[in-house]
Amino acid sequence: MSRSPLSFSPATNAHAMNASSPSRDQARERREPRGFAAMDPERQREIARKGGRAAHRSGNAHQFDSEEAREAGRKGGEVVSQDRRHMARIGARGGEARGANRRQQAHAADHGEGGESTPEPDDTGGMPSARHH
Questions:
Q1: Burial degree of 39 (CB within 10 A; 0-12, 13-18, 19+)
Q2: What is the DSSP letter of 38?
Q3: Is 60 within a domain?
Q4: Which of 94, 93, 103, 102 is nearest to 121 (CA)?
Q5: How much is the pTM?
């Protein structure tokens, strides 16, 4: 890809330094990917594989064991759960989803749809156990 030479006109350069013209912004948006991003995906994977192997050979690569992963998940959960608004939103979404599922099941039961029957909630609002005693 060839580039046109930059203009060294004082008026053009002063304008470019003070304010970005719309044509310059449009040209920036249309720019094609360069370097790694412009490569074929298979070539990108090949280079990434080489980097991964080199990191392992040099001892700089790290793989989580199950205990480290558990600890990282616990810490992440603690951080997320401190955001009360976020927790309220996800709780509300879960309640909405459960209500929608129940409405759908009731509609299917009323209209004889759905080959398999779904268990009815017990008196406590929970679902009965699947175990047979």
A1: middle
A2: G
A3: no
A4: 102
A5: 0.32
